[in-house]
């Protein structure tokens, strides 16, 4: 493939990923019936509105800039990129609040590309992938225990991640439905073993509203390579997290601010350098 057609193809795949994020979010998310507490809504909405007004006054924002903001917010909706925007720049704070009392494995953001009910297998297992799936083969394994050390037999591990080009199935076009997605059951000792390939770093779609902001501000659009994981067991809290790769690019400058030192894998490479082995033990809090 020429450099230009490669560029065009990856740009189109990224744009479609952004667009699908809104549609799939509305399909996949079970909305809790949150009791409308008027005082709380008023307090939070007032703070957000005040923060925006403070920025306008302190930065002396002009009408031209205000109109660009309006147009950009409209584009955000039209591009379907609200899930991307929120998951990159806000979710990490929601996650910090949600998991503040947990003692087990650290959580981090879910991001926009989770799909529930991926095909289930007992482990050891190989995740669904194409026959010629590019990327370094990765054996990902470890134990699931409770915070008191009890092995959690039949713990459930959901794993989803980008491919070797940074694309997620069901969002980027042209990938098999469940590519690099699966639900895995640990054995009777809480040991799991999943065979997959190492993902590549992920770039926020550059053509849409999020990408416009990033380039206008002179930021970069990258997340370090990561595995997305949800782990639970009967009677234990579900933890949603991600694992990163030691030495990988963008670990110190994740656009989504979602890296934690406890979540960095240190894979070992086989003698010939062709296979990676990463061990990670998950620890769950009681429900
Ligand atoms: C986004 C993408 C991800 O893969 C992720 O883990 C977090 C955020 C995004 O594009 O918003
Ligand atoms: Fe991701």
Fold topology:
Elements: H1 3-28, H2 38-59, H3 63-78, H4 82-89, H5 91-98, E1 120-122, E2 125-126, E3 137-146, E4 156-161, E5 181-185, E6 191-197, E7 202-203, H6 209-217, E8 222-223, E9 226-232, E10 239-245, E11 264-265, E12 268-269, E13 276-279, E14 282-284
Parallel strand pairs: 1-5, 2-6, 3-13, 3-14, 10-11
Antiparallel strand pairs: 3-6, 4-5, 4-9, 7-8, 9-10, 12-13
3D architecture notes:
The protein is α/β, with parallel strands linked by helices and 287 residues long. It has a domain at 96-284: Sandwich (Protocatechuate 3,4-Dioxygenase, subunit A), CATH 2.60.130.10. It has six helices and 14 strands. The protein has helices at 3-28, 38-59, 63-78, 82-89, 91-98, 209-217, and strands at residues 120-122, 125-126, 137-146, 156-161, 181-185, 191-197, 202-203, 222-223, 226-232, 239-245, 264-265, 268-269, 276-279, 282-284. The strands form three sheets. A six-stranded mixed sheet has the order 1-5-4-9-10-11, with no helix packed on it. Strands 2, 3, 6, 12, 13 and 14 form a six-stranded mixed sheet that branches. It has a two-stranded antiparallel ribbon with strand order 7-8. A hairpin with a 6-residue loop joins β9 (226-232) and β10 (239-245). The longest helix is centred in the N-terminal third of the chain and has 26 residues, at 3-28. It is globular. Bound molecules: 3,4-dihydroxybenzoic acid and fe (iii) ion. 3,4-dihydroxybenzoic acid (DHB) is lined by residues 84, 87-88, 109, 111-113, 202, 204, 223, 256.
């Amino acid at each position: 493939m020429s450099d230009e057609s490669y560029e065009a193809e990856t740009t189109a795949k990224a744009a479609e990923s952004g667009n699908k994020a809104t549609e799939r979010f509305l399909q996949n998310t079970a909305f809790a019936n949150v009791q409308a507490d008027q005082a709380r809504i008023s307090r939070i909405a007032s703070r957000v509105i005040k923060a925006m007004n403070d920025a306008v006054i302190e930065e002396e924002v002009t009408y031209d800039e205000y109109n660009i903001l309006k147009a950009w917010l409209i584009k955000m909706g039209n591009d379907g990129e609200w899930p991307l925007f929120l998951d990159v720049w806000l979710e990490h704070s929601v996650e910090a609040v949600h998991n503040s009392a947990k003692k087990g494995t650290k959580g981090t953001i879910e991001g926009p590309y989770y799909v529930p009910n991926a095909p289930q297998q007992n482990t050891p297992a190989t995740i669904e992938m194409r026959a010629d799936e590019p990327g370094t083969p990765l054996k990902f394994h470890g134990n699931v225990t409770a915070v008191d050390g009890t092995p959690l037999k039949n713990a459930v591990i959901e794993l989803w991640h980008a491919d070797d080009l940074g694309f997620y199935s069901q969002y980027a076009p042209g990938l098999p439905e469940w590519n690099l997605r699966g639900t895995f059951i640990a054995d009777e000792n809480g040991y799991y073993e999943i065979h997959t390939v190492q993902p590549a770093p992920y770039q926020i779609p550059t053509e849409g509203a999020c990408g416009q902001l990033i380039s206008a501000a002179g930021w970069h659009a990258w997340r370090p390579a990561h595995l997305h994981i949800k782990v639970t067991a009967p009677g234990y809290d579900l933890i949603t997290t991600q694992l990163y790769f030691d030495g990988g690019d963008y670990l110190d400058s994740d656009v989504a601010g979602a890296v934690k030192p406890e979540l960095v894998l240190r894979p070992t490479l086989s003698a010939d350098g062709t296979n990676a082995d990463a061990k990670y033990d998950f620890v769950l809090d009681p429900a």
